[in-house]
Amino acid sequence: MTTLVLTVVGNDRAGLVAAVADVVADHGGNWERSQLAELSGAFAGIVEVSVPAARTESLRAALGAMEGLIAIAVPAAGPHPAAGPARLISFQVLGNDHPGIVKEVTSVLRGRGVSIERMTTTTRDAAMAGGQLFDASIAVSVPADVDVDQLTAELERLAAEIQVDVAVGD
């Protein structure tokens, strides 16, 4: 079996996911994992599928014919490089929304060689204060050679600097 990672992007409409699932199934593929969402009238997602090696190219062609909706990648073989086993930690970021929050947080992670496994962000009305709140849930893979306490301290320092709250947990 060959693993493919599909990126699905387009204007949201009923039946979009079903159309992709039909093509995958018609080529003997299996829908393994996905993250899909509608945002402001657009639909976006990432899907991992497995397909018999002999049918990979016909599946690629069929997906490619879907009006520019799909991008296809073949994941690199083997696990992500790391200095020993990684530790998974998660944290929340919450504060008044302003430009640069994601840039600042991800810069700290990149500087320590930390990889984002999952990240969900949203903004919502601040009930009492007015304006918008930014809220992020982030799960990261921390290489064994990175001190988690130092990473936490760096995130807390950044939180004070950019005026958000960061809560780190395991």
Tally of helical segments: 4
Radius of gyration: 20 Å
Which class do the helix and strand fractions yield?
alpha+beta
- The N- to C-terminal Cα distance equals 34 Å
Under CATH, the homologous superfamily of the largest domain reads ACT domain
Query: Could you tell me the number of beta strands?
Result: 8
**Which CATH class of the largest domain is shown?**
Alpha Beta
Backbone shape:
flat
Q: Looking across the biggest beta sheet, what order are the strands in?
A: 2-3-1-4
- Which stretches are poorly predicted, pLDDT < 50 over at least 5 residues? none
List the helices and strands in order.
EHEEHEEHEEHE
Return the CATH architecture of the largest domain. 2-Layer Sandwich
Query: What is the beta-strand fraction?
Result: 35-45%
Major pleated sheet:
4 strands, antiparallel
Return the average pLDDT rounded to an integer: 89
List the helices and strands and how they pair.
Layout: E1 2-11, H1 16-26, E2 30-39, E3 42-51, H2 56-64, E4 70-73, E5 87-96, H3 101-111, E6 115-125, E7 132-142, H4 148-162, E8 164-169
Antiparallel strand pairs: 1-3, 1-4, 2-3, 5-7, 5-8, 6-7
Helix pairs in contact: 3-4
Short précis:
It holds the Pfam family ACT. Helix content is 27%, strand content 42%.
What does this structure look like?
With 170 residues, the protein is α+β, with helices and mostly antiparallel strands. The protein folds into two domains: 72 residues, ACT domain (Alpha-Beta Plaits, 2-Layer Sandwich), CATH 3.30.70.260; 83 residues, ACT domain (Alpha-Beta Plaits). Strands 2-3-1-4 form a four-stranded antiparallel beta sheet, covered by helices on one side. It has a four-stranded antiparallel beta sheet with strand order 6-7-5-8, with helices on one face. Strand 6 and strand 7 form a beta hairpin. Helix 3 runs antiparallel to helix 4. The longest helix has 15 residues. The chain starts with a strand and ends with a strand. The mean pLDDT is 89.
